[in-house]
Amino acid sequence: MKGSDRPLSEAYDVALLDLDGVVYVGRRPVPAAADSLAKARAAGQRLAFVTNNASRTPSAVAALLTEVGVPAEPSDVVTSAQAAARLLAERLPAGSEVLVVGGMGLRQALYAQGLRPVSTAAGRPAAVVQGYHPDLSYGTLAEGARAVSMGALFVGSNGDLTIPGGDGPPQPGNGALLRVITAATGVEPVVSGKPERPLHQESVLRTGARRPLVVGDRLDTDIEGAWNGGADSLLVFTGVTHPLQALTAPPHRRPSYLAPDLTGLLVPHPEPVREDGAHRCGGWTARRDGDAFTVTGSGDPWDGLRALASAAWEDDAPPPPEALTGALDALRL
Binning pLDDT at 50, 70 and 90, where does residue 170 land? Predict the structure, then answer.
């Protein structure tokens, strides 16, 4: 756990924000998100909206953000499709044909990088790029597999096995769809989206960030992606991650900061201090007591969670969930 004596909106020049589960859920705004981001901007922090979703164009994402109360321009949006297109442009000659297994977001990104999107394997395209699209057909997947079998470079926009299912269970994501071509060809894709480095590098390049802060709700994409990119991260609990999952995360999925929501950008973050085998933050003290962790004190319960995280993360090996449940119950988060 890190600490900051200044609000994070002042300590970091650019916030690289995940979208679903952080700014909105589906098409519903996350409470306090719009107001917090407006205040962060007013404090001088620049915002970039970074998404693994390759099906929407930056214009469509910006329109949705504006709809939920966060004014945005297409230039504020960084997509895994853009990262995939740059990755391909760095490996292929200008004007190369790339078979698109996906939607308009991928096609626009390829055009922007001087590559030629195509729909069939007949011309032996140099590469295949795949991104999630709700109307992806068997025929398109088959063309992609055919091109990969003939030697085309295989790139995936992201490896997310699932996507949010609205009010229902999660639905298959692009990572699940990538397995179709991999199973048919035996070829593993090069992945551009979170948690791999290309999307983080694309975000830093587009924003010119000198000290970026990755903000997300998922340990396996946002937080691990920040780790892979050498950046600090803020985990918010408005999406898929529960505090217990954060406390039991392995080192490469442990965030620098914790906050209930995007109001965490607007406040300082006290750094937990280790003294005499205990971890203290604010008015709380956490310690390991035999096979279990305890937390005592009063004040902001999120300071208690920070103290507890500091104690739980003292070792690289994650503690078992049952060792932490009693302490979490005491915090009433």
Answer: confident
Whether residues 114 and 181 share a domain: the answer is: yes
pLDDT, tens only, 231-245: 999 999 999 999 999
Is residue 92 located within the same domain as residue 179?
Answer: yes
Structural domain containing residue 232: 8-52+195-265
Burial 31-51 (b: 16+ CB within 10 A, else e): eebbebbebbeeeebbbbbbb
> Of 18, 160, 217, 303, which residue is the catalytic one?
18
Residues 259 and 205 placed together within one structural domain of the fold: yes
Structure confidence by residue, pLDDT tens digits, 193-214? 999 999 999 999 999 999 999 9
Active site residue 160: no
CATH number where 31 lies: 3.40.50.1000
Q: Report if residue 66 sits inside a domain.
A: no
d(CA 73, CA 71): 7
Dump pLDDT digits (tens) for 70-116.
999 999 999 999 999 999 999 999 999 999 999 999 999 999 999 99
Catalytic entry in 13, 20, 160, 316: 20
Please calculate the CA angle 116-122-127 and round it to the nearest 5 degrees: 45
The shares of helix, strand and coil residues in the chain, as percent rounded to the nearest 5, are 40, 20, 40
59 belongs to a structural domain:
no
User: Is 18 considered catalytic here?
Assistant: yes
168, pLDDT greater than 80: no
